[in-house]
Design goal:
The chain is an alpha+beta fold and about 200 residues long. It is about 40% helix and about 35% strand.
Length: about 200
């Protein structure tokens, strides 16, 4: 019976998290919508994976077109807020500042539904029960944080690997260029010295 209650309580606190990868072209804006009721806790985490200076403009607006959050030229970020009214909330990523470079963005939207009032029936609301709810809520928050941290580290590892591969390619190409220049100079010096020590015969 206790295990069943623990499972139900854990289900009440589990957050819904949706992750996306999108490409935002230059001079364009991509928006996503999420319907929520008042009191719902919404969260947005994003990371610019590729493109330009790895920056993007972010804007969150409510059903009444009120700006909840706005950030300019951000590479990554996390923002959590509680909905103030029922309706559709909009998340927009704008790349209008870029002239020709598209941006690839990874972002996730977290939705934590407001906890309904549970009819305890024959179960008395004890201190242990409240403590259990607090522990489950803390566990849910910790699991979500760990999940987001793993996603963030994966993206950072991908970015750094791309930078390392690019740097390695440039080093290899520069090494070939240096070898070609050295070989050309060697041949030129040999030819010049050979001509310098030539004995010219006058007929």
């Amino acid at each position: 019976m206790k295990i069943f209650l623990y499972t139900i309580l854990l289900g009440l606190f589990i957050k819904e998290s949706i992750q996306y990868f999108i490409t935002v072209d230059a001079h364009s804006e991509e928006c996503f919508f999420d319907r929520a009721v008042a009191g719902t806790k919404l969260g947005l985490m994003f990371e610019v994976v590729e493109g330009g200076f790895l920056d993007i403009d972010v804007k969150i607006t409510g059903p009444d077109n009120k700006v909840i959050y706005q950030g300019d030229r951000e590479s990554n970020g996390k923002y959590t807020f509680a909905t103030h009214m029922d309706g559709i909330y909009k998340y927009c990523f704008s790349n209008k500042m870029s002239t020709m470079t598209p941006k690839i963005i990874m972002f996730s939207m977290d939705v934590t539904e407001s906890q309904p009032q549970v009819n305890n029936g024959n179960v008395n609301a004890t201190a242990d029960h409240n403590k259990l709810e607090e522990m489950i809520n803390e566990l849910s928050n910790s699991l979500t944080a760990v999940k987001h941290e793993q996603e963030y580290m994966e993206i950072r590892e991908r970015i750094h690997r791309a930078i390392n591969d690019n740097t390695n390619s440039r080093v290899v190409m520069w090494s070939f260029f240096e070898a070609a220049v050295l070989l050309t100079m060697t041949v030129g010096q040999v030819y010049y010295l050979k001509r310098f020590f030539e004995i010219r015969r006058v007929v």
